[in-house]
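lol forgot to send this yesterday, sorry. struct tokens for the thing we talked abt
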């Protein structure tokens, strides 16, 4: 995948991105919302092995660039039955809360629907109200809140929110 609009580019992650991905994924501040306040403790070599298995029809890790600089990452997984699960992290805090997230998400969502997916699902930490606001602006429907449904690395119970989006509800901010 390689899609661009104005100064934003979403492209497949490759071997050259593994150092940057490891830096982001090992940073507890970036990964805390995903349950890893101590980071993942992974290596570029391990990430390189995982990315080697990526394919458009199964799963794909993606790099978000803004004005040619990597600022975050996304992924999508084919769950079967024309359903994709997706995730996003704008890892560089200088680019958070600038309205880029809804545009970036819109770009990927539009591409996934164009590729034949009929539903997109995702979840987020209940504490991540900023993400919930963006998802709901895009048309995602809240399915359920899962109270104390998982433990983070520190053993603290966390809650999550499950969302789904179908093409008829999609509000595209990249058009």
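and heres what i got for the seq, position by position
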């Amino acid at each position: 995948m390689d899609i661009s609009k104005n100064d934003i580019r979403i492209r497949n992650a490759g071997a050259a991105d593994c150092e940057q991905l490891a830096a982001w994924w090992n940073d507890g501040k970036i990964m805390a919302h995903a349950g890893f306040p101590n980071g993942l403790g992974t290596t570029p070599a391990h990430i390189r092995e995982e990315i080697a298995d990526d394919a458009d029809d199964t799963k794909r890790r993606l790099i978000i660039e803004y004005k040619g600089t990597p600022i975050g990452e996304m992924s999508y997984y084919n769950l079967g039955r024309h359903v994709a699960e997706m995730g996003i992290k704008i890892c560089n805090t200088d680019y958070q809360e600038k309205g880029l997230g809804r545009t970036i998400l819109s770009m990927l969502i539009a591409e996934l629907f164009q590729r034949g997916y009929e539903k997109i699902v995702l979840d987020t930490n209940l504490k991540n109200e900023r993400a919930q606001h963006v998802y709901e602006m895009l048309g995602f429907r809240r399915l359920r809140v899962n109270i104390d449904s998982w433990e983070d690395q520190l053993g603290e119970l966390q809650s999550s929110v499950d969302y789904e989006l179908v093409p008829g509800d999609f509000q595209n901010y990249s058009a």
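Strands lie at 2-5, 8-12, 59-66, 69-80, 83-90, 119-125, 141-151, 157-165. anyway ping me if u want another try
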